[in-house]
What we know:
This protein is of the alpha+beta class. It is 54% helix and 21% strand.
Amino acid sequence: MIYRREHVLVVESKETSGYRISLNRRDLMTIQDLEWIIFETVSRKTNIVRPNILNQ
Length: 56
């Protein structure tokens, strides 16, 4: 969809009728960065902290 001469992704809620959000490229990049940060944090906790706890 094009909104104000910019391509956006429109996501519509399945639970609430007519509820939509539009995401531009910057929003999608921010979401991707957050996804990467969460993945790295969980991986680090799994690989470093968990073995230390199990060895106690």
